[in-house]
Design a protein that fits this description.
The complex is a heterodimer of chains A (about 110) and B (about 110). Chain A has about 110 residues and is mainly β. Chain A has no helices and eleven strands. The chains are: A mainly beta (about 110), B mainly beta (about 110).
Chain lengths: ~110, ~110
């Protein structure tokens, strides 16, 4: 079956670095996405990985290892506004919808 | 501005009533999707459409129906057969790069 796992909750302090892990087991693989979702709002796109390695975009980076079925989202220099849910999603075949994990709720405190 | 719009923001349904959620996009995207989100759950796929006049069932299609008569529009009807419709409904679309972009969502509540 299709399965995507991520921790339910994480906490961190302002200015710190946090890593949110995601493991997946899907019938195929055609890309992994990270989205940020603030409470009551729609998810917004953060990053996309289809090849192994690290993709960096400002304070956010995302890593992928296809052989291990593993990705992480790295958030640096945390700010209070980074408190949100972070959703990991996999597309198992081109042209199909995404399979989402349940999301990781990150709480950033001062 | 290009984007995805959903209306209404809040919708109330009475017992036995069908309700329709609107989703419109002006991004010229071919593919559109409907997801449902419940507290503590991930997004679950209801229906998706890769092209006009064609759509496929997702994981939880029972009690829902869709149409795709225009590229810009993908309305979702929640029928009376859906016994637990209270949820946050999200519409998304994607173009050739296949990244999905989401609308602001509709929160459906049962009276």
């Amino acid at each position: 079956g299709q399965n995507i796992d991520q921790p339910t909750e994480m906490t961190a302090t302002e200015g710190a670095i946090v890593q949110i892990n995601c493991t997946y087991q899907t019938s195929g693989f055609n890309g992994l996405f990270w989205y940020q979702q603030h409470a009551g709002e729609a998810p917004t796109f953060l990053s996309y990985n289809v090849l192994d390695g690290l993709e960096e975009k400002g304070r956010f980076s995302s890593f992928l290892s296809r052989s291990k079925g593993y990705s992480y989202l790295l958030l640096k220099e945390l700010q209070m506004k980074d408190s949100a849910s972070y959703l990991c999603a996999v597309r198992d075949q081109a042209g199909t919808a995404l399979i989402f994990g349940k999301g990781t709720t990150l709480s950033v405190s001062s | 501005d290009g984007g995805i719009t959903q209306s209404p923001k809040y919708l109330f349904r009475k017992e036995g009533q069908n309700v329709t959620l609107s989703c419109e996009q002006n991004l010229n995207h071919d593919a559109m999707y409907w997801y449902r989100q419940d507290p503590g759950q991930g997004l679950r796929l209801i229906y998706y459409s890769q092209i006009v006049n064609d759509f496929q069932k997702g994981d939880i299609a029972e009690g829902y129906s869709v149409s795709r008569e225009k590229k810009e529009s993908f309305p979702l009807t929640v029928t009376s057969a859906q016994k637990n419709p209270t949820a946050f409904y999200l519409c998304a679309s994607s173009g050739t790069e296949e990244t999905q972009y989401f609308g602001p969502g509709t929160r459906l509540l049962v009276l």
